[in-house]
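Support request from a user on the community tier.

User writes: "When I paste my structure tokens into the form, the page sometimes reloads and wipes my input. The last time it worked, I copied everything first. Here is what I submitted, just in case something in the input itself triggers the reload:"
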């Protein structure tokens, strides 16, 4: 079994460093019967209320505060949320930022990056195309690359969500986490280890971690579906995979229709607006793809809310 790349002590230190710049996001406890499921308490971690609209702010600040940055600033490739987070953190800290995103990025995320004052480059169809363009930019500019998931500081920053959650609710049995490149679930796994069940949830059209676990190492996977701007890199991160391999109990795949249904249910029942990637973890429960055990105390991370799906002009 490979060794963990990140340990809880590193996450705790990162948390103390970034704490002045992030929000402690709230929990809400609901009865699953409100969603038409067998009655039990569900605990939602409302990370979509984080600065910049997603958990990505944690990893962004960890990179910008824990690494040495040149005068050229930072550069990031992103499906959208990481770019928003790096742009936000860079503006807070007075650091120049250049963000590369693909054409599939949602208009809401592209608009937000522009509003935050970063230099924005829209290029290529998928995240991998934007990443390749950003790497070429790094080679010529000397800017510091801030990887969306496959960077130790990124994983440490995302792991602070788990530390915060454990302090808020120490009695969880199982936690549901959406998976893209694996930075969030890797950080959560590094913090909790085997002390709780960690369930990864992926779109059927972007089964990055599921393919890697089946192969025993990161491999290319399909990268499509409704959440492709958040959960569809070509493969899981090489530094996040060992953590998932050690500590993730299982991976549940959900359809695009099930993700849409989770978005709708969160809005209808709680008036929570989650982007597709932000609702994916809940889709595993709402769809019945995961059947809870008796007495299982379940937490769900609602990890992102950067969407323009709600029209308030009416």
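"...and here is what came back when it finally went through:"
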């Amino acid at each position: 079994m490979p060794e963990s790349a990140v340990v809880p002590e590193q996450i705790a230190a990162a948390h103390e460093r970034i704490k002045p710049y992030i929000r402690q996001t709230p929990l809400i406890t609901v009865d699953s019967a409100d969603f038409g499921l067998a009655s039990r308490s569900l605990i939602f971690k409302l990370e979509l209320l984080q600065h910049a609209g997603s958990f990505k702010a944690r990893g962004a600040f960890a990179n910008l505060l824990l690494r040495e940055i040149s005068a050229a600033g930072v550069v990031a490739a992103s499906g959208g949320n990481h770019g928003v987070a790096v742009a936000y953190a860079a503006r807070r800290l007075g650091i120049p930022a250049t963000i590369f995103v693909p054409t599939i990025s949602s208009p809401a995320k592209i608009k937000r990056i522009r509003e935050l004052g970063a230099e924005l480059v829209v290029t290529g169809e998928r995240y991998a195309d934007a990443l390749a363009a950003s790497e070429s930019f790094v080679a010529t500019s000397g800017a510091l690359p801030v990887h969306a998931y496959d960077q130790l500081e990124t994983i440490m920053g995302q792991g602070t969500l788990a530390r915060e959650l454990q302090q808020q609710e120490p009695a969880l049995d199982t936690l549901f986490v959406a998976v893209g490149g694996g930075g969030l679930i890797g950080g959560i796994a590094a913090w909790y280890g085997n002390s709780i069940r960690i369930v990864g949830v992926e779109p059927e059209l972007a089964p990055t971690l599921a393919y890697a676990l089946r192969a025993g190492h990161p491999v290319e996977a399909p990268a499509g579906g409704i959440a492709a701007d958040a959960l569809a890199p070509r493969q899981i991160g090489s530094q996040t995979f060992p953590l998932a391999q050690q500590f993730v109990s299982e991976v549940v795949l959900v359809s695009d229709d099930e993700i849409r249904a989770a978005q709708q249910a969160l809005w209808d029942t709680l008036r929570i607006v989650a982007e597709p990637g932000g609702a994916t973890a809940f889709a595993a429960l709402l769809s019945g793809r995961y059947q809870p055990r008796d007495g299982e105390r379940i937490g769900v991370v609602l990890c992102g809310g950067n969407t323009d799906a709600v029209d308030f002009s009416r």
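Agent notes: The reload is a front-end session timeout and is unrelated to the input. Residues 56-145 form a domain with the Rossmann fold fold (CATH 3.40.50.1100). The chain has two domains: 8-54+156-302, 56-145. Escalated to web team.
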